[in-house]
TrEMBL record:
Chain residue ranges for the region called Disordered: 1-43, 74-104, 120-152, 185-234
InterPro entries in UniProt: Endo/exonu/phosph_ase_sf (IPR036691), IP5 (IPR046985), IPPc (IPR000300)
Protein's name according to its UniProt entry: Inositol polyphosphate-related phosphatase domain-containing protein
Gene3D superfamilies per the UniProt record, alphabetical: Endonuclease/exonuclease/phosphatase
GO molecular-function term, one example from the UniProt record: phosphatidylinositol-4,5-bisphosphate 5-phosphatase activity
Length: 622
C-alpha cells in the first residue's frame, strides 16, 4: 500500500499539518517575530524534533497541546509585563492613550494632578486667610506725628475717642447688665475710626447654582449680602477697649436723635406743579430750576406694596419734574435674574405710581440691579442726548475676555435738559462688613467708566447723582451699635460710618456731598417689622442705602430739600431711601439756556435717544 500525504488541518483532533509524516511540522513563516518569541520558538523546535508526529504510527498530541498552552501562557505573561511597564512609565504624551484602557489611565493621571494642584491652592488660601486674620502689627509713631495723622484723617471734631463720645460711654454703663462679659486689657487704647483691611471677593463657585430659578437660592455665599463675614479683629478689639475705658464713667440721660429731612418737614418748600403742561414748561423757563426726586431701594426680590402705598411714601404725584428710581435685587433674586432679568412688572408699577403726566425716558437693567428715569411730559421738547451704560463689577467668569457678572455693579443714565447735562447712577456695591476698600474701588471704577462711556469727548456732567445699596457699614460690634441706637448716640454712629469716613479721607469721593444722615440705619430688618436682624448672624445695623451728588462751583447748583427713609414700607429687609433736590439749569436767565433740546436732537455716544427705551444685560466684558 502506497503512503499518502494526509491533510490534518480538517481533522478536529489535529491542530497541525505536515506534508511529510516522517518529519515534524515546522511553520517558518512566523519565525521573524520579536526576539523574545523567536528564541522561545527555537527552543520549542529543538525539543519537538524528538516528538513522533507520524499519524500512521501514532502522534503524541498531548505534548503538542501542552506546548501550545505553554506558548499562550508565555504571551499572556509578556502582555501583563508590557501593561505593567506602561502603567509605571506612563505620561500624557504616550501614544497608547488612544485605546480605551490607556485613556482610562490618562484620566486617572489627570485626576491625580488636579488633586495635587487643588491641594496646594487650598493650602495657600488657608495660609493667606490665617495671615489676614492675625492682628496687624503697626509701627509706633511719635505723639506729634500721630496728632498730625489724626488731624488729616478725621478733621476737626471728627473723632471716635473717649472724650468725644462721653455720652456713648455712659450709655454703655447703663446697659452693662444686658451685655455679655467681654475680656479686655486695661492698657487698650480708645476706639478710633478703623480702616477695614482689604479682602478679596469670594470666587465664583464651580457650580453657580443648582437651581437658578429658586427664589431663595441667592441666599448662599456667592450672591447675597446675607453672608457677612466675621467682625474684624481690629474693630472688636477697639470696641472692647472702649468698653474697658468707660467703667468709671458717669451715666447720662438718653440723647435726642436729630430730626430727618422727611417729606412732611419740607412740604411747604415743595408745592405741586401746575396742572397744565404749558404752565409746567413756563415755570421752568421763568425759574431756571427743576425739582428732582431720587429713590434707591433694595427690594430683596420681594413683591412691592400697592400703587397707592408707593405713591404716598415715595413718588408723591405731580411734585417733581424728574423722578429717578434705582432698585437692587429688583423683582427677582440675583441668581434668578441671570435667567429672568426683565423688570417689566416693576416698571409698570412705577409708571402707575407716578401717574399719567410722566413718561418713561429710559430704563436699564444689570442682572438684578435696575435704574429708571421718569420725566414730566411737559419737558419732552427740552430733552436730548439720552443714553445709558452698565458697568458690572461682580464675579469674574471669563478667562480670555474677563467677563464679569452683574451681581454687583452700577448703571448710569444721562441726558440733556436744554444745555444742562444730567447723570444718574444707581449701583449695588460689594457686601460684607470688612469690604470697605473694595467698595471704594468699585465706586471709583463705576464713576470713571460710566463718565468715559457716556461722555466720550471728556468733561463732567453739570448735575451728577450717585445712589444705591452701597453696602457701607458701621465700624463696631453688634453690641456697641445696639447701645448706640438705644441711647440714640447719633454723632458716635456717624463718626464710625464707613462711607462718612471714606468721604473725609479717600480722594475717590472728592467733590461729593450727602444730605444730613438723620434717619435711622436702613439695614437689616426682620421681615415686616422695625426690629433689626434677630437671626443667628445678627448683622450690624448700618446705613447701606445712600444718595450722593457731585458739588459744583456754584453752591446753589444742587440744593437738597429732603433726605430720609420710607419707614412705612416693610416688604424688604432694607428701607427705601429718597431725596428731593432743586437743580439750577446751566445758563439760567439767558435767552437760549433751554435751546438744543428736542426728542430727536443730539444723539448720545451710541445714538439711541429714544423715548421709553429699555436696555437689559446680565454681565459686561472688559
Amino acid at each position: 500500500m502506497e503512503s499518502q500525504d494526509i491533510d490534518t488541518s480538517s481533522s478536529p483532533s489535529s491542530p497541525l499539518k505536515s506534508s511529510n509524516p516522517s518529519k515534524p511540522f515546522v511553520d517558518k513563516t512566523n519565525l521573524n517575530t520579536s526576539p523574545k518569541t523567536s528564541s522561545y520558538i527555537k527552543q520549542s523546535l529543538s525539543s519537538a524534533k524528538t516528538i513522533n508526529l507520524d499519524p500512521t504510527k501514532g502522534t503524541d498530541w498531548k505534548v503538542a497541546i501542552e506546548q501550545a498552552k505553554a506558548y499562550k501562557s508565555f504571551k499572556k505573561q509578556q502582555s501583563l509585563k508590557s501593561k505593567e511597564r506602561l502603567n509605571k512609565e506612563y505620561t500624557p504624551n504616550t501614544k497608547a492613550k488612544k485605546d480605551d484602557e490607556s485613556l482610562q489611565r490618562y484620566r486617572e493621571w489627570k485626576e491625580q494632578q488636579k488633586k495635587k494642584v487643588l491641594g496646594s491652592v487650598i493650602a495657600e488660601k488657608k495660609e493667606k486667610l490665617k495671615k489676614e486674620r492675625s492682628p496687624l502689627k503697626e509701627k509706633p509713631e511719635t505723639p506729634a506725628k500721630e496728632e498730625q495723622v489724626n488731624s488729616a484723617i478725621v478733621g476737626k471734631d471728627f473723632s471716635f475717642s473717649t472724650s468725644a463720645s462721653a455720652n456713648f460711654l455712659s450709655a454703655m454703663m447703663n446697659v452693662e447688665a444686658a451685655i455679655s462679659p467681654i475680656k479686655m486689657e486695661e492698657s487698650s487704647p480708645p476706639i478710633s475710626p478703623v480702616k477695614s483691611p482689604k479682602k478679596s471677593s469670594p470666587s465664583l463657585s464651580a457650580k453657580v447654582s443648582s437651581d437658578l430659578l429658586g427664589v431663595d437660592k441667592d441666599a448662599g455665599k456667592n450672591f447675597s449680602d446675607d453672608d457677612d463675614s466675621d467682625e474684624d479683629n481690629d474693630i472688636v478689639e477697639s470696641s472692647n477697649a472702649l468698653l474697658a475705658s468707660i467703667r468709671d464713667g458717669s451715666i447720662e440721660e438718653k440723647q435726642a436723635w436729630p430730626e430727618a429731612l422727611t417729606d412732611k418737614l419740607v412740604d411747604g418748600a415743595i408745592g405741586a406743579l401746575p396742572k397744565e403742561d404749558a404752565g409746567v414748561l413756563q415755570g421752568v423757563k421763568d425759574n431756571g430750576k427743576v425739582l428732582v426726586r431720587v429713590i434707591t431701594w433694595n427690594q430683596q426680590a420681594k413683591k412691592p406694596p400697592s400703587t397707592e402705598d408707593l405713591r404716598k411714601a415715595l413718588f408723591r404725584e405731580n411734585k417733581y419734574h424728574i423722578i429717578v428710581v434705582g432698585t437692587e435685587e429688583c423683582e427677582n433674586s440675583i441668581a434668578k435674574s441671570i435667567v429672568v432679568h426683565s423688570k417689566k412688572n416693576w416698571e409698570e408699577a412705577v409708571v402707575d405710581a407716578c401717574g399719567d403726566k410722566y413718561i418713561k425716558l429710559r430704563s436699564h437693567t444689570l442682572q438684578a440691579t435696575h435704574n429708571m428715569v421718569m420725566v414730566h411730559r411737559a419737558l419732552l421738547p427740552l430733552l436730548s442726548q439720552t443714553n445709558s451704560l452698565a458697568i458690572a463689577t461682580g464675579h469674574n467668569v471669563g478667562v480670555i475676555s474677563k467677563q464679569q457678572l452683574g451681581n454687583k455693579g452700577g448703571i448710569g443714565i444721562s441726558f440733556c435738559l436744554g444745555k444742562t447735562s444730567f447723570l444718574f447712577i444707581n449701583a449695588h456695591l460689594a457686601a460684607h462688613q470688612n469690604a470697605s476698600e473694595k467698595r471704594n474701588e468699585e465706586f471709583e471704577r463705576i464713576s470713571r467708566e460710566v463718565v468715559q462711556g457716556l461722555k466720550p469727548n471728556g468733561g463732567d456732567f453739570d448735575c451728577a447723582f450717585w445712589a444705591g445699596d452701597m453696602n457701607y457699614r458701621i465700624n463696631g460690634t453688634r453690641q456697641v451699635v445696639d447701645v448706640l441706637l438705644a441711647k440714640e448716640m447719633h454723632d458716635v454712629m456717624i463718626h464710625n460710618d464707613q462711607l462718612s469716613v471714606a468721604m473725609q479721607t479717600n480722594p475717590v469721593f472728592e467733590g461729593y456731598a450727602e444730605g444730613p444722615l438723620n434717619f435711622k440705619p436702613t439695614y437689616k430688618f426682620d421681615k415686616g417689622s422695625d426690629n433689626y436682624d434677630t437671626s443667628k448672624k445678627k448683622r450690624i445695623p448700618s446705613w447701606t442705602d445712600r444718595i450722593l451728588w457731585k458739588k459744583q462751583a456754584d453752591p446753589d447748583a444742587i440744593k437738597v430739600l429732603s433726605y430720609a427713609s420710607a419707614n412705612d414700607i416693610k416688604t424688604s429687609d432694607h428701607r427705601p431711601v429718597y431725596g428731593s433736590f432743586e437743580c439750577k439749569l446751566k445758563g439760567a436767565g439767558e435767552n437760549d439756556f433751554l435751546a438744543g433740546g428736542g426728542a430727536g436732537a443730539g444723539a448720545g455716544a451710541e445714538g439711541d435717544h429714544e423715548i421709553g427705551l429699555a436696555k437689559s444685560q446680565v454681565c459686561s466684558v472688559m
